[in-house]
């Protein structure tokens, strides 16, 4: 497989090269790191809807849910802080681990961080599957979080550095594609294990070792990126690797730009302090606000708690899990849209269209739930309304899957210059994990207190973030990663932060 490319149509440098089979396979292997994240997102929601799991670890929730089947406030049937802690504790651990991963990634390379993340996730999966009490369960979740923190910090950076400019978007979106496949597989596993008479939840949790093994073994055979090799003083090896992934010996221009970027990065002794300087204000803002907005879309309300949410809406146990499988499948196919369009139409178009569709769907779902449950949480969905609600949720999931899902990881990973790239990606991961933790910990309580208004709450944030993209995010399509800094100089708002003598511009 080969196809020629030159630098981006947005004014990037002209680099010679081909889209080689080697770089495609390398990026696909690296992207499997997303399986860890996706499998965990999907598995936790299904497990927390299983009666055997609830009776063993959260008996209060089990007895309350059974009592509310006779009537009562359906909004509050799963409201329990310890149950939410089971889901959210992982993301708090991932937040902390992302900072350690930044140091590891810069000092030892991207593939070492992926290897560490896979091994720690593997241990956490075994511990969860063998859990005998809540403490053991939470410790396992924390270890899973450390693994995800390492994977989410290193994989997007690895993909952005390995990919040729014209395919950087599509190859980076493969990470999100792996996340959606992980979610879908987890939903299928949950549906299957829910029919087991005993220990179905253990099987669901321990099968997380499979994506961990895939990523760990894959990381052993992955090459490191030319950027990372140069950064660690291995210039000859870096040039050889660049020639291999570009499919040509004529890589002098791109190699020289990588050398310059690395030399500049070595002048920055404290990337954590430098990232707060005015000249990096645009990148820092993107690193914070894009993952913040990604979580405030409300997507994890669906992905974490899909079976729980559908049971709240009146679906039976099996129907709730099957509906989660359907939304997971929609998630996978819609992510393919992003892979095939992100480098053709650009990031901004997908962000904005996805945002508009999500707003309409969330408002519509909120209106339907209000009409059925009202303020007191008592009511029953008709079959038609239930199916219509599931349809709207599927459209919402599809819109997220081609926009804020993959682009929420792609855009932050490609806007930082090398000297602050690892620190910037750690900020992106930590912000993402922190607000994932907040949503995971508070959603069921918010549903209990805000009722149908919760969907209007998330829709309001989608309105704000779509406007943020419209006015403040420049297009990065097709620009070589070490030249992305030029976009800030030409932006109506961000150009005031860019120094005139910036060598990147």
List its traits.
74% helix; 505 residues; globular; disordered N terminus; mainly alpha
Largest sheet: none
Succession of helices and strands: HHHHHHHHHHHHHHHHHHHHHHH
Structure classification = mainly alpha
* Number of extended strands: 0
* Distance separating the two termini: 34 Å
Overall geometry comes to: globular
Low-confidence runs of at least 5 consecutive residues: 1-12
Distinct helical segment count: 23
Instruction: Tell me roughly what share of residues is in helical segments.
Output: over 70%
Q: Please tell me the overall pLDDT.
A: 84
Kindly estimate the percentage of residues that lie in beta strands according to DSSP.
under 5%
Evaluate the radius of gyration: 23 Å
Subcellular location: Membrane
InterPro entries: MFS_dom (IPR020846), MFS_STP/MST-like_plant (IPR044778), MFS_sugar_transport-like (IPR005828), MFS_trans_sf (IPR036259), STP/PLT_plant (IPR045262), Sugar/inositol_transpt (IPR003663), Sugar_transporter_CS (IPR005829)
Membrane topology: Multi-pass membrane protein
Organism: Anisodus acutangulus
If you had to describe this structure to a student in words, what would you say it looks like?
The radius of gyration is 23 Å and the shape is globular. Helices cover 74% and strands 0% of the residues. It has 505 residues and is an all-alpha fold. It is built from 23 helices and no strands. Residues 1-12 have low confidence and may be disordered.
In short:
The chain contains 23 helices and no strands.
Element layout with pairings:
Layout: H1 21-31, H2 33-47, H3 51-57, H4 59-68, H5 81-108, H6 110-129, H7 134-162, H8 168-193, H9 200-206, H10 209-221, H11 226-231, H12 235-246, H13 252-267, H14 271-274, H15 281-295, H16 299-312, H17 317-345, H18 347-373, H19 383-402, H20 404-414, H21 421-450, H22 453-472, H23 486-489
Protein name: Major facilitator superfamily (MFS) profile domain-containing protein
Domain Major facilitator superfamily (MFS) profile: 26-477
Family: Belongs to the major facilitator superfamily. Sugar transporter (TC 2.A.1.1) family. Belongs to the major facilitator superfamily. Phosphate:H(+) symporter (TC 2.A.1.9) family.
């Amino acid at each position: 497989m080969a196809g020629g490319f030159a630098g981006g149509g947005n004014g990037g440098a002209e680099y010679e090269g081909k889209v080689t089979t080697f770089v495609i396979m390398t990026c696909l292997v690296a992207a499997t790191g997303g399986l860890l994240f996706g499998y965990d997102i999907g598995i936790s929601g299904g497990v927390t809807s299983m009666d055997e799991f609830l009776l063993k670890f959260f008996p209060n929730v089990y007895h309350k849910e059974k009592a509310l089947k006779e009537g009562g406030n359906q909004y509050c049937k799963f409201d329990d802080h310890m149950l939410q802690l089971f889901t959210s504790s992982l993301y708090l651990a991932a937040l902390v681990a992302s900072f350690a991963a930044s140091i590891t990634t810069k000092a030892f390379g991207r593939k070492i961080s992926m290897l560490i993340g896979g091994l720690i996730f593997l241990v956490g999966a075994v511990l969860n599957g063998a859990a005998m009490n809540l403490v053991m369960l939470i410790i396992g979740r924390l270890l899973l979080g450390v693994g995800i923190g390492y994977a989410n910090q290193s994989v997007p950076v690895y993909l952005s550095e390995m990919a040729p400019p014209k395919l950087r978007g599509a190859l980076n979106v493969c990470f999100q594609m792996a996340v959606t496949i992980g979610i879908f597989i987890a939903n299928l596993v949950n549906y299957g294990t829910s029919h087991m008479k005993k220990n179905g939840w253990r099987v669901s949790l321990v099968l997380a070792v499979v994506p961990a093994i895939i990523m760990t073994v894959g990381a052993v055979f992955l090459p490191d990126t030319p950027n990372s090799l140069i950064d660690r003083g291995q210039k000859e090896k870096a040039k050889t690797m660049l020639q291999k992934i570009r499919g040509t010996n004529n890589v002098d221009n791109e190699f020289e730009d990588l050398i310059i970027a690395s030399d500049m990065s070595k002048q920055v002794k404290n990337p954590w302090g430098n990232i707060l300087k005015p000249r990096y204000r645009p990148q820092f803002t993107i690193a914070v606000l894009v993952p913040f907005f990604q979580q405030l879309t409300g997507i994890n309300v669906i992905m974490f708690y899909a079976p729980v949410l559908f049971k709240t809406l009146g679906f039976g146990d099996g129907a709730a899990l099957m509906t989660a499988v359907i939304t997971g499948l929609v998630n996978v196919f819609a992510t393919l849209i992003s892979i095939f369009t992100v480098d053709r139409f650009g990031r901004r178009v997908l962000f904005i269209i996805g945002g508009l569709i999500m707003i309409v769907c969330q408002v519509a779902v909120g209106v339907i739930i209000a009409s059925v449950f009202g303020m007191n949480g008592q009511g029953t969905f008709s079959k038609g309304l239930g199916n219509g609600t599931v349809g709207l949720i599927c459209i919402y999931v599809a819109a997220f899957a081609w926009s804020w899902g993959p682009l929420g990881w792609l855009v932050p990973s490609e806007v930082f210059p090398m000297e602050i790239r690892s620190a910037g990606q750690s900020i992106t991961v930590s912000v993402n994990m922190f607000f994932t933790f907040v949503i995971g910990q508070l959603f069921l309580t918010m549903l209990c207190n805000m009722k149908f208004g919760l969907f209007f709450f998330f829709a309001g944030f989608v309105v704000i973030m779509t406007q943020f993209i419209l006015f403040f995010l420049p297009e990065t399509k097709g620009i070589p990663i070490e030249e992305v800094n030029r976009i800030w100089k030409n932006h109506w708002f961000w150009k005031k932060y860019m120094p005139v003598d910036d060598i990147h511009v």
